[in-house]
Backbone:
């Protein structure tokens, strides 16, 4: 995907302007929110529910192994129930069939790329494209991804993907965002801490899982060496 080279706050400002426009209209459009995990959703889903009827889409076949996928999904469901009760919301969750084998086949051509590079961008594109298609097929008014809240995700790249998808599907469904702004990241941490939320130790895919295990083994090795020398 070619870079569009927008000013840094371009997408953030577009998102804020659209939300304020909707707020002023007194309408409650239907929003599909691609949801990677409970910590990222913690603040965002509450904030968006002030303006939208929110449905979470858990389409995360990237997460490996299946046990980790299940832990993250169960945490998201538990937190959503908590939010619905505490804030009188009616947030729904849709789970897409888990198929990590097909997903990793799509990613195989860039599997040697470094964390945060083309491999990760390809991952975003796969899942956001899938979510966009689901939003169109099910008559949502807007779609966006929660991933721009993460300090590890480049919101400009995510929004460029969203802009490209608008062009691909000839629609303006994608809601631009940078949920980190205006203390979004701090609020997200506070919400997560208040719920004592499970926080994963790696991004999700088999490659990041392998790197996580390698880091863990290196740390154990370093501890062992220290014990031997002391």
Residues:
């Amino acid at each position: 995907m070619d870079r569009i080279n927008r000013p840094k706050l371009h997408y953030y400002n577009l998102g804020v302007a659209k939300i304020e426009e909707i707020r002023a209209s007194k309408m409650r459009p239907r929003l599909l929110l691609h949801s990677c995990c409970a910590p990222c959703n913690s603040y965002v889903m509450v904030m968006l529910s002030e303006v939208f009827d929110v449905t979470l889409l858990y389409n995360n076949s990237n997460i490996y192994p299946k046990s980790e996928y299940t832990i993250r999904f169960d945490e998201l469901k538990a937190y959503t129930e908590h939010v619905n009760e505490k804030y009188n919301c009616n947030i729904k969750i849709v789970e897409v069939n888990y198929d990590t084998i097909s997903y990793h086949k799509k990613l195989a051509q860039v599997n040697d790329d470094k964390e945060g590079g083309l491999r990760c961008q390809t991952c975003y594109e796969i899942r956001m494209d899938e979510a966009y298609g689901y939003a169109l097929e099910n008559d949502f008014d807007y779609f966006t991804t929660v991933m721009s809240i993460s300090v590890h995700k480049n919101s400009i790249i995510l929004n460029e993907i969203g802009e490209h998808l608008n062009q691909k599907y000839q629609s303006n469904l994608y809601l631009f965002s940078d949920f980190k702004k205006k203390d979004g990241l701090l609020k997200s941490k506070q919400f997560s801490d208040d719920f004592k939320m499970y926080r994963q130790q790696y991004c999700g895919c088999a490659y990041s899982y392998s790197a996580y295990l390698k880091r863990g083994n290196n740390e154990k090795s370093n501890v062992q060496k220290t014990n031997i020398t002391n």
About this structure: The beta strands are 30-34, 53-58, 92-95, 142-145. Helices lie at 10-25, 38-48, 66-86, 100-107, 118-137, 155-169, 184-195, 206-229. Residues 8 and 106 are 30 Å apart (CA to CA). Confidence is low (pLDDT under 50) at residues 219-230.
